[in-house]
Design goal:
- The protein has helices spanning 39-59, 77-84, 128-134, and strands at residues 3-10, 24-31, 64-69, 114-116, 137-138, 143-144, 148-149, 154-155, 158-163.
- The strands form 3 sheets. A 5-stranded mixed beta sheet has the order 1-2-3-9-4, with helices on one face. A two-stranded antiparallel sheet has the order 5-6. A two-stranded antiparallel ribbon has the order 7-8.
- Helix 1 (39-59) runs parallel beside helix 2.
- Helix content is 22%, strand content 23%.
- By secondary structure, it is of the alpha+beta class.
Length: 167
């Protein structure tokens, strides 16, 4: 049940007549492996998704929206790769890689300028609605306090990211 779907969508009509050319957006949705003991598999799946998106970005100047159930808490290696374009080589989750699928660690990078859509609230002008939403945010990781609330876990596992240079 681990999957990613990437689609390039085109607007049927331009937003206004002054815009020339095709209006495209790349949308990716994923469900990353859930087992908390397999952080190496999660990191590999996220890295593979990002490399696929990089290939699309290299072929066209296209905005991207990446969303899904990443089954990874803020600060995890997979989350760090998404939002920081790389993983700290001293991240404790990197020790869990019995098959070496994430080695060398230096390969765990990407060139996409991704930012959390939730994190945009941290920089938004302070309106009553923004202040209310910010109370539900982890100010350290710029993510919601939780996106999943179950009997064993109350935390953020789901993310929406966008390319800052194109959206």
């Amino acid at each position: 049940n681990n999957v990613a779907l990437i689609a390039v969508l085109e607007a049927a009509e331009p937003r206004d007549s002054s815009q020339m050319g095709r209006q495209l957006i790349c949308v990716a949705n994923t469900h990353i492996h859930a087992n908390p003991e397999l952080s190496d598999v999660k990191l590999w799946q996220v890295h593979t998704l990002l490399k696929g998106l990089e290939k699309i970005a290299a072929s066209a100047d296209i905005p991207m929206l990446v969303a899904g159930d990443f089954n990874s808490l803020p600060g995890s290696a997979a989350h760090q790769l998404l939002v920081n374009r790389g993983v700290d080589p001293n991240h404790p989750e990197l020790e869990n890689d019995p098959l070496g699928i994430n080695k060398p660690v230096s390969k765990l990078t990407h060139q996409l300028n991704l930012a959390s859509a939730y994190g945009a609230y941290m920089q938004a002008p302070e309106t009553q609605q923004v202040l209310k939403q910010m109370q539900r945010m982890d100010t350290e990781n710029h993510e919601p306090l939780f996106s999943y609330n179950g009997k064993d876990l109350n935390g953020t596992l789901d993310y929406i990211l966008y390319t800052t240079d194109a959206l």
